[in-house]
Amino acid sequence: MKQVQEAYIVAATRSPIGRSHRGFFRNMRPDDLLVSVLQSALAQVPTLDRNMIEDMICGCAMPEGQQGLNVARTAVVLAGLPTSVGGITVNRFCASGLSAIQMAADRIRVGEAEVMIAAGVESMSMVPMGGNAPSFSPLMFAKDENVGIAYGMGLTAEKVATQWKISREAQDAFALQSHQRALAAQAAGYFGAETTPIEVTDRAPNLATGEVIEKKRTVSVDEGARPDTSLEGLAKLKSPFAARGTVTAGNSSQTSDGAGVLILASEKAVKQFGLTPLARFVSFAAKGVPPEIMGIGPIEAIPAALRYAGLKQDDIDWIELNEAFAAQSLAVINTLGLDQSKVNPMGGAISLGHPLGATGAIRAATLIHALQRKQLKYGMVSMCIGMGQGAAGIFERV
User: Which of the chain's ends, N or C, has fewer CB atoms near its CB within 10 Å?
Assistant: First the structure.
């Protein structure tokens, strides 16, 4: 089908990102977190007739356990939306949230919907990497070229570091820069407009009485950025992935919990309900690469997204490149010749965290608000994807 209309983002928000297992969302169900962020996004468009919403598409990398059973539909119902609003959960691992935006935009662009919700959610505290009962097909190990599908992500980063000659020093310097940029952005309040404060409940036992004491508090700032990060401290960390490896916990993304929600509308819906467009969805690309060097995925996806948009790399003013690992981020930046001042100006997953399937939606919210704040024209979200893919999406401020 031909594109018949444009898709505009009219609301974009996200939760703060919590550290998995020990952070502020460690005891919060991901479906409850998603509902809170969804309700916040809906509150940004009070004039929108909820009955006009066609569907909600939610990305989730490990859609099981507390974020299983079609978490998108669960969130639609629990958020109090009309029962006519559909819900589907999609999985492209780290690009799940971005793919949800692309799918929602495409429904509008071909005229099948006027209003859509796109989202991403992940609790790495409650559902571990790989899920609760991972099971690989024996056929993966029958051919050498397929074994990379089963590699741990750290090992793929080591292979990228070796092949693209990314030194340990360069990786640690990149990691330090991520923390410094994130801390500076937090101090300046730059994340405020995109972030939905979330109420969490902390529970602790009173050892004297045996009672469980509950305390409620509101969290609004990502908790991954560390002010005490230094090159000296990073240099002391050992690689768990290879005997003489260069990839460490310090120059890798943090496992995290979080959610992001965007509301998309056609021009007709924008006019009908008096909505304010923040950005136009421009293009999307997903490309496959060898699984054992999955981190290079953006090297293939970014040029394709630019080609589909009819844009040049220099046209992009702001790039949210997911920092799965410093090694693969630098391989992408160096190979494509990306302007480092435009890449993650407010830090990335090494400092802010990477809640897998939520990251695409979260970083899209960051990008869209940054384009508005800085009055920039084009921005891009891109990431590598486990098992060997890359994705990239382009947005235009309106």
Answer: N
Residue 46: which pLDDT band, with cuts at 50, 70 and 90? very high
**Phi-psi map region of 93: left, alpha, beta (phi>0 left; psi -120 to 50 alpha):** left
Positive/negative CA dihedral, 264, 100, 257, 172: negative
Which amino acid does the sequence have at 192? G
> Which residues lie across from 380 on neighbouring strands?
319, 394
In this structure, what token pair is assigned to residue 82? 């009309």
CA dihedral 21, 24, 29, 32 (to 10 degrees): -160
What whole-number distance in Å separates Cα of residue 175 and Cα of residue 247?
A: 11
Is residue 286 within 8 Å of 302, Cβ to Cβ?
no
Q: Which of 58, 179, 354, 369 is catalytic?
A: 354
- β-strand pairing of 86-90 with 53-59: parallel
Q: How far apart are CA 298 and CA 287, in angstroms?
A: 8
Residues 6+ apart with CB under 8 A from 59: 89, 90, 91, 92, 95, 96, 97, 98, 99, 100, 119, 120, 121, 357, 358, 360, 361
Q: What is the DSSP string of 68-113?
A: TTTHHHHHHHHTT--TT-EEEEE--GGGHHHHHHHHHHHHHHTTS-
The confidence score (pLDDT) of residue 1 equals: 74
**CB atoms inside a 10 Å sphere around CB 6:** 19
- Which residue in 58, 94, 179, 369 is the catalytic one? 94
d(CA 368, CA 236): 37
The chain-wide mean pLDDT, for the chain, equals 97
Centre a 10 Å sphere on the Cβ of residue 380 and count the other Cβ atoms it contains: 31
Which one is catalytic: 58, 60, 179, 384?
Answer: 384
pLDDT digits over 114-149, tens only?
999 999 999 999 999 999 999 999 998 998 888 999
Cα separation, 398 vs 388, in Å, equals 34
The answer to whether 281 and 101 have CB atoms below 8 angstroms apart is yes
- What are the structure tokens assigned to 25, written together? 């969302």
For this structure, is 354 an active site residue?
yes
**Do residues 353 and 256 lie in contact, with contact meaning Cβ atoms separated by under 8 Å?**
yes
What pLDDT score was predicted for residue 143?
87
